[in-house]
Amino acid sequence: MATPVQQNLIAKNKSYAANFRQGNLALPPAKKYAVVTCMDARIDPAAAFGISLGDAHVIRNAGGSCRAALRDLVLSQQLLGTTEILVIKHTGCGMLTFKNEDAMAVVRKNLGNEAVWEVGAFLNGDFLPFGDLEKAVMEDIEWVRSSKLIPKSIGVSGWIYEVETGRVRRVA
């Protein structure tokens, strides 16, 4: 039996597919850029950032972390030809609300010590929270620019999306 979420997926996809006419788009993104942004449900990257289907790679994770997106960025550039990265974090991000110790305590309480071991083994004990939004954008940009996996020719800029207004502003 399908859950209500699955039923919604099926119904909405049926409607979408009935009018879908863009199945011939090329695999590489047409505008040759990648966006790293947060998975926050209040952000609609296509609408907010003017991204049409086929234009860009949109990489989403908690906090819009470039560290968490590194594998995707390397593939985006090396195999699919992107030449620019937009790092877009946002106001009211959940990653501003906790420290690693807080997340680890919740994991221990809800999932047990074996799960805590996996956090250490697979995430190096770091959920990548941050306390200052602009500083986090700058740190991600600096980290990307210093990575040996990202060519120096790749343009990198940093932005903050305001969930309260829908506006974006450049940080770097």
Automatic annotation (TrEMBL):
Pfam families: Pro_CA. Signal peptide: none annotated. Its EC number is 4.2.1.1. Zn(2+) binds at residues 38, 40, 90, 93. Keywords: Lyase, Metal-binding, Zinc. One of its GO terms (molecular function) is zinc ion binding. It catalyses: hydrogencarbonate + H(+) = CO2 + H2O. InterPro entries: Carbonic_anhydrase, Carbonic_anhydrase_sf. SMART domains: Pro_CA. Its cofactor is Zn(2+). Binds 1 zinc ion per subunit. Belongs to the beta-class carbonic anhydrase family. PANTHER family: CARBON DISULFIDE HYDROLASE (PTHR43175:SF3), CARBONIC ANHYDRASE (PTHR43175). Reversible hydration of carbon dioxide. This is Carbonic anhydrase. It comes from Hyaloscypha variabilis (strain UAMH 11265 / GT02V1 / F) (Meliniomyces variabilis).
